[in-house]
Amino acid sequence: MQKFITSLVLAVLVMIPAMSQAHDKHEDRPAMLVVSFGTSMPEARKAIDSLVEAVRSEFPGVPVRLAFTSNIIRRKLQKEQGESVPTPSQALAQLNDEGYTHVTVIPTHMIPGEEYDEVCDVAWAFGGIDGKFGFEGISVCSPFLDGVKGCETVADILMKRFSERLKDKETGIILMGHGTPEHFANAQYLQLQLALNQKAYGRFFIGTVESAPTIDDVMAELKRHPEIKKLVLSPLMIVAGDHANNDLAGEDEPDSWINTLRKNGWKDVTTYLVGLGEDKNIASELVRKVHKLIDEDD
Ligand code: CO
After folding, report:
1. What gap in Å lies between CA 223 and CA 279, rounded to an integer?
2. Which of 47, 86, 111, 118 is the S-S candidate for 90 at Cβ 3.0 to 4.6 Å?
């Protein structure tokens, strides 16, 4: 009897870890999904790829996938370059099918506008799926211009980015944001302007392609700063794509900002057409945000 009880206790002891393992069927399998609007211009693509690369090298062993939100660009890429880039929902369904349990979604958007909201909608929809077609955890990283702190951080990055040009007191930096006409997130451009004014008053002038401030607002502001005689035009966007090359710097586009400024008397206008995604400090900021999000979730 004594022997029987001893072996029974032993058997139970041996079974406990086996049972808890059986209950916890699988271990956590994390994955990351970088989401961009997308671009079909190979030169501009570097900006997106370098952000993906920055995340990959920071989290070795975690798969980092890429999705584009623009269907026009996705279809163009498929047709012209034979490259298939998924939508956020396709990419998440694929990660689910491959058995990943936790996903960190990393939008590369500047403002928490419509596009960003749509990425969140998809992520939260997947987050609401119980059972095998959902995830155990899904979280979404904030955009760059997310509140006062985010704007101050981006302002610091812009100060470094243009530090050489700012040494010349006659140079003004004109930044073209995308802008969103119907969403309150457009106000983030003014929040960033405030942060830039505090760091270098009268040196940075933010406008947007699709909303306010417009190029007319920028010129009105420039007139209040007659000491600014030389202008540098640069995109306030992750990618220097169509908007940067045509709406901002297009020589053949009569209404491009470069031509509008020249017509209105600013003759010394140069361009710096590099997407913010290629800026090492923007890449580090993205990685920092991902770390912060993961730490909050733990
Ligand atoms: Co656009």
Report:
1. 30
2. 86
The domain tally of the chain equals 2
**Cβ neighbours around 78 below 10 Å, total:** 12
Please indicate, yes or no, if residue 255 is contained in any of the structural domains: yes
0.85 surpassed by pTM = yes
Is the residue at 121 inside a domain?
yes
- Residue 22, pLDDT > 60, answer no
For residue 164, the domain's CATH number is 3.40.50.1400
Contact 159, 153 (CB under 8 A): no
Expressed in angstroms and rounded, the spacing between residue 242 Cα and the centre of ligand 1 is 8
Ligand 1 centre distance from Cα of residue 155 (Å) = 22
Cβ neighbours, 10 Å, residue 89: 15
CA of 122 to the centre of ligand 1 (A): 21
- From the list 75, 8, 49, 41, the residue with the least C-alpha distance to 273 is 41
- Positions marked catalytic: 178
Tens of pLDDT, residues 181-238? 999 999 999 999 999 999 999 999 999 999 999 999 999 999 999 999 999 999 999 9
Tell me the pLDDT tens digit for each residue of 29-80. 999 999 999 999 999 999 999 999 999 999 999 999 999 999 999 999 999 9
Do 221 and 257 lie in one domain? The reply is yes
Domain with 46, as residue range(s), is 27-144+279-297
Residues 119 and 186 in one domain: no
Residues 155 and 120 in one domain: no
**Ligand 1 centroid vs 108 CA: distance in angstroms?**
15
